[in-house]
Amino acid sequence: MKSIESVNDFVIKFANVNGTGSASANSLFAKAIFRMGVPVSPKNIFPSNIQGLPTWYEVRVSDKGYLGRRGGVDIALSVNPQSMADDIREVEPGGYFIYDNTKPLDLRQHRNDISIIGLPLTRICNKEYDDPRQRQLFKNVIYVGALAALLDIDFKVLTGLVEDQFKGKKNLVLPNIHALELGHQYARANVECPIGIRVEHSDMVGDKILLDGNEALGLGALYGGATVAAWYPITPSTSVVDAFEKYAKRVRIDPGTGRRNYAIVQGEDELAAIGMAIGASWNGSRAFTATSGPGVSLMSEFLGLAYFAEIPTVLFNVQRAGPSTGMPTRTQQSDVLACAYASHGDTKQVLLFPSTPKECFDFGAQAFDLAERLQTPIILMSDLDLGMNDNMSEPLSWDDERKYDRGKVMTEEELEAGTEFGRYLDVDGDAICYRTYPGTHPTRGSFFTRGTSRNEYAVYSENGEDYEANMLRLLRKWDTINEHVPAPVTVDCGHETDTAVLYFGTSEESSREALDYLAEEGIFMNAMRVRAFPFNSEVQQFIESHVQVFVIEQNRDAQLRTLLMAEFEFGPDILKSVLCFDGTPISARNIRKQIKKHLNGDNVLPLHRKASLSGVGETL
Amino acid sequence: MSYQLPKFRHPELPVNDLGYTKADYEGAISTLCAGCGHDSISGAIVRACHELSIEPHKIAKLSGIGCSSKTPTYFLGNSHGFNSVHGRMPSVVTGAALANRDLLYMGVSGDGDTASIGMGQFAHVARRNLNMVYIIMNNGCYGLTKGQDSATADRGSASKKGDPNLYSSIDLCGTALQMGATFIGRSFSGDKEQLVPLIKAAMSHRGFALIDVISPCVTFNNNLASTKSYEFVREHSEATGTIDFVPMHKEITTEYEPGSSHEVTLHDGSSIHLYKVDDSFDPFSRRSAMGALEEHRNEGNILTGLIYMNKDSRDLHEVIETSQRPLNELEEVDLCPGNKMLVNINASLR
């Protein structure tokens, strides 16, 4: 047997039981490697459950800086007998299986093509601790200590992290360090350390930070000047408002009165949440709501109102696997069409697609400027993978000279001076009209906001010409929006090629890695990352300048591809699909496999085979 | 279609303390059916606002969908209005009120809009004690879709079509009481003498003020077998008492017989004088109010007047301790912590 040998390049997967405190120990492991200057990408794969079901934590370690899922597992660390059979099966040939051997491994699960390493974690804990909760919690810390020995992780970095984490709580620092040492010493004394896979100090992290997208969004809303947050709890978006509140409590308290310069209301449902956001925006506050797929379905009626009545609205959608309740704790990019055309009648909604926590922060703040400038809903499309996992990201920054763009709002002075006001009167010829806040002027500038048709002065009208003129103006406005939203990012492969890939959001990192794999095999492709809908004209030019473009996305129905075909009238001959929708983030190996299949012509299948082909998104 | 009223006014129309005539509080001409109870309620709102000398632009009027929700077009033409989504007016008002606590929020809804599609939002806006007036124009039927029974139609009551309603009716005052509303009144569109002071008191109350106004639908639900017809309501309503509303800045000139009235001072310094019909009823007790509602229902009567009021009401802004300055007036300097904080946050994430 040839064991895998590598330095700073591997995938480790922890198999735990939900609710046993494993998440914090596992993140301690990931952060230690990050602090050693090696890029990491931890992904929490957790059940929709509070306690008892299997949960996994997969950490990609890559000196090359690949942050997406690679596919495959080099090291499995298993402390959950429930999932052990699957966990051991998943290990790459030559890989390592580390498990709690207090209870010996079932012989039927044994494999000869991998290294199997036993650590008597339960026995160590039972000997060391009397309290059952301590036995459970410290078991996790002990295996992190053992891993440090097995992978040659700098032990001082680990203890430093514990000290930082429990700053000021000495009674927590020492027991945790002790538990780390227990594991470390056991491994050193009983197992050959290090194994073939090692971690070395590196300098590939630079000034980057480890942050989850939801916290970045909460901060974006705070910096973007949001004062009203209305929401309803739903995985995986809940921590967006939690983060907003955490920071608002620190910096939005009026120093004189101690009162709050923000308001957060937990609604009775998502209908109420977006209703409140719309009411507050209508009244001149910056407001937002955060939700996920089922919430978007409920909010659709209100999104139509905000589109039609032109009320700035900011919605953060942290996508999860649908349809219906779907897989609530698994990731997908499957709300693209539901959001792009949210609500009945002719509606089009502006979408922003961030890829990193930094972009969550930037786009999150920018969403408020866009909403007020364009007087329409802005839907920011994050997903569970980006939102709930620590992602390595560029640091956050803010230009202190920056002013909020509050859009076209007529003031009391302008009204007093006799400026003509019609809420839907296109005076500037850019299809964006002036609004007024309630309470501005005693006798001028009031108007009636409604979801029914009206004329330019906001007076109810069932006249077909009034209705049509308004709908056409909305379309004219729509046609200018692609100049305001973030432009796509193109990566030229530096070689003559007629094929390309196009992706958005969290498919970026794995796509980048897959393209490197393909380039090593002599297959060169250009790449474009779309960052918003409506699509910039560059997107059309990019697609037209290639013969074949693979659209990589994490849903079953190729939703972005559908949107591209609808907006630009491309045919299926140009746009090909690379899909993953099993609820895990798309992996680089999966993308490579699907693209190669197409390029080799393997994608032309007889109909009967096509029907029986299981899961194009099969994970490698 | 909405028609604007002619602008010409009699030069000697009485003006209020701010110099506004009643006409300054009117809206477009109603397009509801002639004789609709809702128009009388619009009239009462106009009168209450004029007499209270509220600047028209300091009121925001919001509604859901239905005949009732059309009425904000027909009053307060100088106020911002918002005709939102069916049953969802409470959430829109909640957001608006959070953004600017200095305006007065007048929500108008109907029995379909509140007791069916909007029941959830109604319950929760009451429970949050949002500082607003919530007027229900309650006719027991869906007018705009031609007379289907609503959830407030009494069991056995029949609309013009003739089929008696099979289901239990929802008493919105009782529901609001359960949910934690801090001001609850009921009135009848045909009784302006009762309705106008109730609206004024509701506008001065700090917290969620509900007025359930029985407002007969002349087209679909004003027949003999209906319990929401003009005739039935006139014969079966029983008032808790009468009230007078005295704004803070008005000198109290009316003479009251000692002991006959109960004076209640509101947050803004104005006061309500309450004449109770029956001493056993206490409008400051939830239990008494609930009992009175049940008792009158048992007798087949409709209890009107001020049903409940919590004098120590704390509204949503008080509960969540929002700034006294309206949130929509805050600027970058108040809202944005600047790059320095991000530098520290970045450092903590390495």
TrEMBL record, chain B:
| Superkingdom as given in the UniProt entry | Bacteria
UniProt KW Oxidoreductase keyword: yes
Q: Keyword annotations for this protein?
A: Oxidoreductase
Q: Which InterPro entries match?
A: 2-oxoacid:Fd_oxidoreductase, THDP-binding, TPP_enzyme_TPP-bd
Domain named Thiamine pyrophosphate enzyme TPP-binding is located at: 65-213
Q: Does the keyword Oxidoreductase apply?
A: yes
Q: Which Gene3D superfamilies match?
A: 3.40.50.970
The name this protein goes by in its record: 2-oxoacid:ferredoxin oxidoreductase subunit beta
Origin organism is Candidatus Marimicrobium litorale
Instruction: Provide the taxonomic classification.
Output: Bacteria, Pseudomonadati, Pseudomonadota, Gammaproteobacteria, Cellvibrionales
